C-alpha cells in the first residue's frame, strides 16, 4: 500500500503503532513509515524508523522479517550516501532470507547496483530474482524486477531488450492496483522512447506520469531528472536547468535523498553547459563529482567528470592536462559500456586539435567517429562531428563537407520526427558545429557558390516544411479558448485599474504551459528529404536586375554573398557583434522618433543607418545595381531596419529568412478569387482608421461586406461551433466573395474563431491590431482581437494562411533567434503555411502615422504592385517629418509576393 496509496499507508501505520501492536506488526509499521520517509520525505527519519523496524523484527525472532527490513534499510543507506553501510546491510539480508524473501532482497540490491551505476551486478541479481518471483506468482515484484532490468538495459544502450521487458512488465501492472508502480511504468516507457529517439513520445509519457504521480501526492525527483534529459535533447536547456534547480531546492527542503541530489546536480550541470553558462555548469558539476565520489558511485562520478571537463573547455581552459583527463574519462566510460563514451573521446580530440597535437587528436577522434554508424541520432551526430574534425586535421575539405553533410542529414531526419515548430527550431543547435565546419571548409576550397550552398543548408530550416498541424484535440482546443478568455480578462483588468491581476496572470501562465506541453507532444509527419537548395535555380529566378544579398557569419565576421546576373560574389564586411550593438542603438532611436518632438534625432538615426551599412554590406553596397534587392540576414540581425541603410533607402526592398524560402515564396501561386479580409482589433490609438477607409475604396464592386451585418452575425454561431472548429458559412458570405468585395471584421465580430476562418485561404489580409511579442515564449506572440489574443499556435491551425498579409501594428516583425540560425515569431509562422509576402513592423510605431502609410501601401497594391514595390512607394509618399519617416523605416516587406 505504501506505493499504491502512500498517504493512506502512512496513516494506517501510525494508527497501528498507537494501538500497542506486537513486535512483528510494529516492525511492519515502522518499515512502512521508513519507506515513506525514504522516498517521499526526510532520509534521516527514514533511517531511524528502519533501524527500529529491524530491532523489532529481531525481537519477534523472524529471520524473513529481518531480511526484508535489512533490504529496505540498505536502499535508504545508499540513498543517504552511506554506500558501504548499505551494501553491508544487503549482505546480511541475503544471508538471513530464504526463497521468496531472498528474491525480493536480491531485487532491491539490484536496484541499488543500478543507483550505483554497477550495471553488471544489477543484471546478475535480477537474473537470480525473477524466476523465484515468477514461481511464487508474485506479480507486483516480478513487474518491478522486469521494469528495473529494462532500465538497466537502457543505461547500457540496449533499447530492444528494454522494450521487451517494459512490455512484459506493463502487462503485469495492468492486473494490479499499484498506481504508483503504474505511473513508474509510464515514466519508464517515456525514458525508453527518449533513448530510441522519439522526443515527442517521451515528453507525452513523462507528462502523463507526472499527472499520475500528482494524483498520488508523491514527489517526482527521478521524473524531473529524466524530463531534464529529454528537454536538453529537444534544445530546451534553459528549461531543463530551471527544472533541475527547482527540484534540488525542493529536495533540500524535505531532507531528501542524497543520491537524487547528486543526479539532479549532474543534469543541472549539463543543462547549464548547453545553455551557454559554463560557470554555473562548473559549480554544479564539481559538487556532483564530490557527492558521487562520497557515495562510491563511479559510473555517475565519471559522467559528472565529463561535464566538468566540458565546462572547463567552454571557459577557454584548453591544456594538455585536459586532453589527458578527457581521454581517461573516455576509457572509463567505455569500460562501463556507457553510451556517453564517444562524447568524451570527441572532447579529447577537439582539445588536442586546438593545441596542435594532431597525432593525439587523430587517435581520440577515430574512437569517437565509430559511433557515426549506429545508435540514437545524437550519438551518430557525435560520430560525424568527430569524422569532420579528422578530415579537417588531415587537410581534406572534401572529407569535411561529406562528414558534415552526413551528420546534418541525420539531424534532419531527427528534426522531422518533431511536430512542433519550436522543437524543430531548437533542435538545429545540435548541428551548429557541423554547419560552421562546412562553411569554413567551403570558404577555403569552394568559392562563393559553395559557401552560399552551405549557408543555406542550415539557415531557417524550420521554414522548409509546414509544421505538423495541431490535432483536433478537444482538451487542447478548450484550453486555448480558456487561455484566450483569461488573457482578455487580465488585459482588461490592467487597462481598467492600471494594475496587474496576479491570480489571473498565474492561471494564464498555467494554461500557457498546458498548451505548449500538448503542442510539444506532436510527432512530425514529414521526412528530412526536402528539395535541396540549387544555386542555378536561384540565379535564374533573380535574372539580371534583381539582387539577393545573403549574409553569412564565419568566426564572428559578416561575409556578404551577392547573387545576381548569373553569378555569386563574396565581400567581407564588419564584425557581427558590432553590427548587433549598432542595430540595438537604431531600434532605440526609432522608438524615440515614434513620438512627436524627436526631430533632432532624425540625423542621428540616418547616421546610424550609414554605420550599419558599412558593417553589414561593406564594399558590396557599391555593387547592388539599380534594381530590387532581397536581403537574407542571419537570425541575430533580424531587427535591423533595412530601409534605413542609405544604399537600400530608395529601393524596392524585401527581407527573407533564407534564399530557399524566398524561392518558395516566389513560386507560390496566389489563390483564385482574390478574396480580401480587413480586420480591426480593439484598443488602437488610431482606432485602426485605415480599415474603414480601405473598405470604402471598393464602392464600384458593391461596397465591403461588414461582418456586423445581421446575416453575418447569424453565421457567427455556426463558425464558433462547440468543438473549436470554424463551421459552415452563411450564403451571403459566399456571394460577397464572388463579388470580390473585402470582408471587414471589427468590433465584436473580430473574434479569433471568425478571424481564422476568414483568413484561411485569403488572397490578402490586412490586420490592424495591437501586437505583442513574447521573447520568453515566442509562439505566444499575439495580435489582440475582441475575445483575446490571436497567437502563433492559432495560425498553425490554418490549412493555408493568406497569400499576402499586412500587419499594421507594432512588434509584429520581431522574432526570437533560437537553434543554429532559426527564427520564431508571427511572420515565420506564416511563411511555411502558404503566405508568400508579409508587411510587418520591427519596432514600436506611432499609430496615427501608420494610417497614411497603410493607405498608400494599398494604393500601390491596387495598381498591381508587389508588397515590396508598394511599400517603397508608400514611404516616399509620407510627409517628411521625423515621426512619419521613422514609421516608414520600421516596416519591412518579407517574402516575394
Automatic annotation (TrEMBL):
InterPro entries for this protein: CHAT_dom, TPR-like_helical_dom_sf, TPR_rpt
SMART domains reported in the protein's UniProt record: TPR
Q: Which residues form a coiled coil?
A: 46-73
The record's region (Disordered) falls at 490-509, 664-735
Q: Which UniProt keywords apply?
A: Coiled coil
Boundaries of every CHAT domain copy: 607-891
Tell me the protein's name. Answer: CHAT domain-containing protein
Organism of this sequence: Streptomyces mutabilis
Amino acid at each position: 500500500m505504501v506505493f499504491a496509496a502512500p498517504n493512506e499507508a502512512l496513516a494506517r501505520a501510525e494508527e497501528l503503532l498507537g494501538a500497542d501492536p506486537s513486535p512483528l506488526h510494529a516492525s511492519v509499521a515502522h518499515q512502512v513509515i521508513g519507506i515513506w520517509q525514504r522516498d517521499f520525505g526526510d532520509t534521516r527519519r527514514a533511517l531511524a524508523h528502519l533501524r527500529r523496524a529491524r530491532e523489532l523484527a529481531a525481537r519477534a525472532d523472524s529471520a524473513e522479517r529481518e531480511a526484508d527490513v535489512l533490504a529496505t534499510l540498505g536502499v535508504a543507506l545508499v540513498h543517504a550516501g552511506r554506500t558501504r553501510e548499505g551494501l553491508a546491510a544487503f549482505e546480511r539480508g541475503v544471508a538471513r532470507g530464504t526463497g521468496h524473501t531472498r528474491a525480493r532482497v536480491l531485487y532491491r540490491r539490484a536496484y541499488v547496483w543500478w543507483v550505483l551505476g554497477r550495471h553488471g551486478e544489477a543484471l546478475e541479481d535480477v537474473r537470480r530474482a525473477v524466476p523465484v518471483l515468477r514461481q511464487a506468482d508474485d506479480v507486483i515484484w516480478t513487474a518491478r524486477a522486469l521494469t528495473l532490468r529494462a532500465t538497466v538495459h537502457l543505461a547500457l544502450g540496449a533499447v530492444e531488450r528494454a522494450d521487451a521487458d517494459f512490455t512484459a512488465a506493463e502487462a503485469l501492472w495492468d492486473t494490479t492496483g499499484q498506481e504508483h508502480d503504474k505511473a513508474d511504468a509510464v515514466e519508464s516507457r517515456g525514458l525508453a522512447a527518449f533513448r530510441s529517439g522519439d522526443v515527442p513520445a517521451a515528453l507525452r509519457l513523462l507528462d502523463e506520469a507526472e499527472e499520475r504521480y500528482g494524483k498520488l501526492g508523491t514527489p517526482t525527483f527521478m521524473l524531473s531528472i529524466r524530463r531534464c534529459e529529454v528537454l536538453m535533447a529537444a534544445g530546451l536547456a534553459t528549461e531543463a536547468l530551471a527544472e533541475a534547480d527547482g527540484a534540488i531546492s525542493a529536495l533540500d527542503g524535505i531532507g531528501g535523498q542524497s543520491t537524487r541530489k547528486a543526479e539532479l546536480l549532474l543534469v543541472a550541470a549539463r543543462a547549464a553547459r548547453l545553455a551557454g553558462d559554463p560557470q554555473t555548469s562548473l559549480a554544479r558539476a564539481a559538487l556532483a563529482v564530490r557527492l558521487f565520489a562520497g557515495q562510491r558511485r563511479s559510473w555517475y562520478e565519471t559522467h559528472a567528470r565529463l561535464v566538468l571537463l566540458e565546462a572547463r573547455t567552454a571557459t577557454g581552459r584548453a591544456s594538455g592536462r585536459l586532453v589527458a583527463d578527457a581521454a581517461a574519462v573516455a576509457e572509463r566510460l567505455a569500460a562501463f559500456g556507457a553510451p556517453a563514451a564517444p562524447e568524451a573521446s570527441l572532447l579529447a580530440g577537439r582539445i588536442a586539435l586546438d593545441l596542435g597535437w594532431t597525432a593525439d587528436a587523430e587517435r581520440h577522434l577515430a574512437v569517437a567517429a565509430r559511433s557515426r554508424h549506429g545508435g540514437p541520432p545524437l550519438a551518430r551526430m557525435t560520430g560525424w562531428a568527430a569524422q569532420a574534425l579528422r578530415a579537417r586535421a588531415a587537410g581534406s575539405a572534401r572529407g569535411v563537407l561529406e562528414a558534415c553533410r552526413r551528420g546534418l542529414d541525420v539531424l534532419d531526419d531527427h528534426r522531422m520526427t518533431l511536430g512542433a515548430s519550436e522543437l524543430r527550431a531548437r533542435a538545429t543547435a545540435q548541428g551548429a558545429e557541423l554547419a560552421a565546419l562546412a562553411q569554413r571548409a567551403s570558404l577555403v576550397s569552394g568559392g562563393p557558390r559553395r559557401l552560399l550552398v552551405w549557408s543555406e543548408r542550415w539557415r531557417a530550416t524550420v521554414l522548409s516544411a509546414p509544421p505538423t498541424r495541431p490535432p483536433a484535440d478537444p482538451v487542447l482546443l478548450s484550453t486555448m479558448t480558456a487561455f484566450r478568455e483569461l488573457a482578455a480578462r487580465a488585459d482588461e483588468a490592467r487597462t481598467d485599474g492600471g494594475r496587474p491581476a496576479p491570480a489571473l496572470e498565474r492561471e494564464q501562465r498555467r494554461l500557457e504551459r498546458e498548451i505548449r506541453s500538448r503542442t510539444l507532444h506532436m510527432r512530425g509527419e514529414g521526412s528530412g528529404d526536402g528539395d535541396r537548395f540549387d544555386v542555378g535555380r536561384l540565379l535564374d529566378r533573380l535574372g539580371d536586375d534583381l539582387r539577393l544579398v545573403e549574409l553569412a557569419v564565419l568566426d564572428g565576421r559578416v561575409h556578404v554573398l551577392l547573387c545576381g546576373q548569373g553569378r555569386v560574389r563574396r565581400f567581407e564586411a564588419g564584425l557581427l557583434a558590432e553590427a548587433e550593438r549598432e542595430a540595438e542603438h537604431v531600434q532605440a532611436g526609432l522608438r524615440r522618433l515614434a513620438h512627436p518632438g524627436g526631430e533632432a534625432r532624425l540625423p542621428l538615426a540616418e547616421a546610424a543607418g550609414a554605420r550599419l551599412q558599412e558593417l553589414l554590406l561593406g564594399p558590396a553596397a557599391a555593387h547592388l545595381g539599380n534594381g530590387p534587392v532581397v536581403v537574407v540576414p542571419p537570425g541575430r540581425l533580424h531587427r535591423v531596419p533595412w530601409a534605413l541603410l542609405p544604399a537600400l533607402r530608395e529601393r524596392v526592398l524585401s527581407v527573407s529568412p533564407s534564399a530557399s524560402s524566398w524561392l518558395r515564396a516566389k513560386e507560390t501561386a496566389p489563390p483564385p478569387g482574390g478574396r480580401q479580409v480587413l480586420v480591426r482589433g480593439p484598443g488602437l490609438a488610431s482606432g485602426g482608421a485605415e480599415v474603414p477607409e480601405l473598405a470604402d475604396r471598393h464602392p464600384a464592386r458593391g461596397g465591403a461586406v461588414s461582418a456586423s451585418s445581421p446575416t453575418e452575425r447569424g453565421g457567427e454561431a455556426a463558425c464558433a461551433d462547440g468543438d473549436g472548429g470554424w463551421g459552415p458559412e452563411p450564403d451571403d458570405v459566399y456571394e460577397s466573395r464572388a463579388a470580390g468585395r473585402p470582408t471587414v471584421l471589427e468590433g465584436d465580430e473580430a473574434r479569433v474563431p471568425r478571424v481564422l476562418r476568414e483568413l484561411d485561404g485569403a488572397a490578402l489580409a490586412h490586420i490592424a491590431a495591437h501586437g505583442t511579442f513574447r521573447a520568453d515564449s515566442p509562439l505566444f506572440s499575439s495580435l489582440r482581437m475582441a475575445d483575446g489574443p490571436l497567437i502563433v499556435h492559432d495560425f498553425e491551425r490554418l490549412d493555408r494562411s493568406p497569400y499576402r498579409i499586412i500587419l499594421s501594428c507594432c512588434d509584429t516583425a520581431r522574432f526570437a533567434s533560437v537553434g543554429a540560425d532559426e527564427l520564431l515569431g508571427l511572420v515565420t509562422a506564416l511563411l511555411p503555411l502558404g503566405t508568400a509576402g508579409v508587411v510587418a513592423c520591427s519596432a514600436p510605431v506611432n499609430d496615427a502615422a501608420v494610417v497614411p502609410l497603410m493607405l498608400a501601401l494599398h494604393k500601390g497594391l491596387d495598381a498591381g504592385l508587389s508588397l515590396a514595390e508598394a511599400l517603397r512607394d508608400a514611404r516616399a509618399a509620407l510627409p517628411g517629418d521625423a515621426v512619419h519617416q521613422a514609421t516608414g523605416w520600421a516596416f519591412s516587406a518579407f517574402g516575394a509576393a
